[in-house]
Amino acid sequence: MSDEKIFIFDTTLRDGEQVPGCKLNTKEKVELALQLEALGVDIIEAGFPISSPGDFHSVEEIARIVKDATVCGLSRAVEKDIEAAAQALKPARRPRIHTGIGTSDSHIRNKFNSTREEILQRAVQAVKWAKNFVDDVEFYAEDAGRTDNDYLARVVEAVIAAGATVVNIPDTTGYCLPDQYGEKIAWLKNKVPNIDKAIISCHCHNDLGLATANSIAGIRNGARQIECTINGLGERAGNTSLEEVVMVIKQHQQLGFYTGINAQELNPMSRLVSDTMRMPVQPNKAIVGANAFSHSSGIHQDGFLKDASTYEIINPEDVGAGESRIVLTARSGRSALAFRLQKIGYSFNRNDIDALYQHFLQVADTKKEVVEEDLHQLSKAYQSSLATV
Ligand code: KIV
Ligand code: ZN
Fold first, then answer.
1. Distance from residue 141's CA to the centre of ligand 1 (Å)
2. For the chain, what are the domain ranges?
3. CATH topology of domain 4-277
4. If 162 and its partner were Cys, which of 127, 255, 277, 387 is the partner (CB 3.0–4.6 Å)?
């Protein structure tokens, strides 16, 4: 059986940009959109056109400039939102309107003061209205993670019958466990009679740190699109991180999936988003964090230097992260010290390294990290001590 494609729907410019402090102007959004296209994403959610004139303009400009990727605009299940999205997407070669409504009882009661039947009608009307403007209409059932599965199946069937090409099943609050989310997707796959007429999409938030695991559970149970952001940016604890799902799919080929993402661009893309959005990446972030390919304890360094695969499952060059780093700290061992000394031109024998290591530890205990300059000083002091003997 040949591998199946997972469509990557990037929402860095919409869900990611909702993060306080991450707001972008049109020029910045357009630049990021072009880079996302070059990275190989299939769908770019460019913004929420009704939300502000600035965002409308950004979506319009992105729609004009992007060539291959589908450009998508968000709307609520409200006619004037859908019309604004359609208008902003007019210049796009492949426009998609993303419309939807909350389907959990909590949303139905607390947000809309409504009923399940009325919400189902509004969902269908929104999709039908969007279909007047574009062929490609994605429907989101907001808070699907906490929506009753029977009702969710009815909504999904009705919106597909109304013309939805993609059905998005968001775990809006990041509540689901991977099994639960996977079972929800499997349930839809099995219960909705017309499900083969649409692509199921995962849109998972990271409130419990499960967004990536939930998205992977989703595709293992029948979803074929993942909504994600660079660096996992997004509301509250963020969205599924694009670099994580792409690399899970790549590293676990037995899953039988592939994406169109050029993995070597993942680190440059992460830096570009971090700089443009003025949002630092946590150092221990998988794939793109500063420490993702750094080894600092003696046991790990020794194993890594004997064979990189002992402690690394990804070659950092494959994700554009350059070389792995051997960081020297008070927890480092002799082999790491010898390796770093050799890298800057010193070749000491085993006895020298034993002796130098004691001096190294004294320095290391006073510092967070022993850097190249310290190594030069240690080596020079040691060499002159030998000369005076
Ligand atoms: O988290 C969510 O439910 C959303 C929808 C608007 C798709 O972002
Ligand atoms: Zn979201």
1. 8
2. 4-277, 294-387
3. TIM Barrel (3.20.20)
4. 127
* CB 170 near ligand 1, within 6 Å: yes
Ligand 1 mutation pick, 168, 206, 228, 239, max ligand atoms within 8 A of CB: 168
Q: Whose CA is nearest to atom 7 of ligand 1?
A: 140
Tens of pLDDT, residue by residue over 106-120, are 999 999 999 999 999
pTM of the model: 0.96
Inter-residue long-range contacts of 213-216, CB under 8 Å, 24+ positions, other chains counted: 213/178, 214/171, 214/176, 214/177, 214/178, 214/181, 214/182, 214/240, 215/240, 215/245, 216/178, 216/245, 216/248, 216/249, 216/255
d(CA 247, CA 43): 18
34 and 63 in contact (C-beta within 8 Å)? no
292-322 burial: b if 16+ Cβ within 10 Å, else e = bbbbbebebbbbbbeeeeebbebebeebbbe
Quick one: how far is CA 255 from the chain centroid? 19
Atom of ligand 1 nearest to the CA of 15: 8
Main-chain dihedrals φ then ψ at residue 136, nearest 5 degrees: -95, 105
